[in-house]
Amino acid sequence: MKAKWGQPAQGETPATLWLHYDCAHRRLRNSLIFFFWDSTGLVYSAAEFVVKDTNGTNCIMANFSVTFRINYDTTGSTGSQNTTLALMSDAHVLNSSSCRRDNVSEPTLMIALGKGHILTLNFTKNMTRYSVKKMSLTYNLSDRATFSNASSNGTRTADSQPDISADIDKKYTCASKHVIPMGARVTAELHNVTIQAYLSNNTFSPGETRCAQDGPAPTPVPPTPPHPSPPPTPEVPSVNKYNVSGANGTCLLASMGLQLNITKQTGDKMVTHIINVNPNKTTVNGTCSAQLVTLELLSERNMALVLQFAMNTSSSRFFLQGIQLNVTLPEAKELAFHAANTSLKALEASVGNSYKCNAEQQVRVTEAFSLNMYRVWLQAFRIDGGKFGSVEECQLDENSMLIPIAVGGALAGLVLIVLIAYLIGRKRSHAGYQTI
């Protein structure tokens, strides 16, 4: 069969398709050839060739474009000249092509290029790779259309061991130009090569081994995991007083600024939400019991923040034991956010005393939620006269006080050293004089 499109109109780039199918030898003779033109004429041809075994299973598949440049002797005064031999419309797989037979012969692809010209690819393999063991071109000098003024007739053969190899169960690919010397007078130039022998799935494998001319296969870039976006610089929350009273009077006095620090996925990235608790839009509730004091804050964004204070009866100390949060986040993948932790031990002080910390504190509740607390002063359980008791400073404040003390001590020591050195120096300056 042959299907052909018309000659290219000016400025167009059409193609001609030639399809050969030998019904008598259907296991071998399959070839598909494309010719491409530019404005100057034929530029190259590409073909696909298939070799099948007696069961009709593919054992070799090859798709490539090849051009041979041949130097031959002539009867003219120049003595020799060059010609070009390429895939033509009548190129096809020869019946002498074969698959591997009982481990005796290796697969062979033989392609008739027309008028007595034959390209042969002999394959071989080891445990891990296969390769083209030998590439041969038999060309017929009697083809005067190709070898005009040839000084002799008959055929000549040129061969080479090309650098064409691939891993087993992978196809060999080479999009770049691949020049293969074949003796002194013949050079092969291959383009857009895809070849595979010893097929296991009756077609080209998805994996490939690329030629050196193409360079290494690009390394797939792993998807970038979502990174939290840098949190915006938040405003310091307003400090407010929060009191909780029960049947026996006040059980919690607190003065502090509260800020929610939440990391949540939004779309394809992680976003940090900083939300200040607005005292002007917050309702305060709570409960008192002998072992647990609870502060409940209800605010905008459907926020419900619960702080639970417990008491260690053996040491008579209170501490922040639990934090629970429910809030609606803006533009989050899941609008409702919930976090809870009842195993905390923070803001600790003796019962009857108050806990105070002017430095900013961050209480980590879960991986996704932390409660930022500013200028905290609180007391739970026993409160005398409705006022804060003796203050127990937090470690952060104590550390901040140590710095100026250390600096002041160092300066005082330096002044003392200078003073002593001055006095010693002055005493020595008078040692050589006597009173008259």
Write a structural description.
The protein has 436 residues and is mainly β. 8% of the residues lie in helices and 50% in strands. The chain has one helix and 29 strands. The chain has one helix at 395-429, and strands at residues 2-3, 15-21, 30-38, 41-52, 58-73, 80-86, 92-93, 108-114, 117-125, 129-140, 155-160, 165-167, 171-174, 178-182, 186-197, 208-210, 240-246, 249-266, 269-276, 283-288, 292-299, 303-312, 317-328, 336-341, 346-350, 354-357, 361-364, 369-380, 391-393. The strands form four sheets. Strands 1, 2, 3, 4, 5, 6, 13, 14, 15 and 16 form a ten-stranded mixed β-sheet that branches. β9 (117-125) and β10 (129-140) form a beta hairpin. The longest helix has 35 residues, at 395-429. It is elongated and about 125 Å long. Residues 1-29 and 33-44 have low confidence and may be disordered.
What is the overall shape?
A: elongated
Largest sheet: 10 strands, mixed
Q: Name the average pLDDT.
A: 82
Radius of gyration: 45 Å
Structural class, by secondary structure, is mainly beta
Helix/strand layout:
Elements: E1 2-3, E2 15-21, E3 30-38, E4 41-52, E5 58-73, E6 80-86, E7 92-93, E8 108-114, E9 117-125, E10 129-140, E11 155-160, E12 165-167, E13 171-174, E14 178-182, E15 186-197, E16 208-210, E17 240-246, E18 249-266, E19 269-276, E20 283-288, E21 292-299, E22 303-312, E23 317-328, E24 336-341, E25 346-350, E26 354-357, E27 361-364, E28 369-380, E29 391-393, H1 395-429
Parallel strand pairs: 13-16, 26-29
Antiparallel strand pairs: 1-2, 2-3, 3-4, 4-5, 5-6, 5-15, 7-8, 8-9, 9-10, 10-11, 10-12, 13-15, 14-15, 17-18, 18-19, 18-28, 20-21, 21-22, 22-23, 23-24, 23-25, 26-28, 27-28
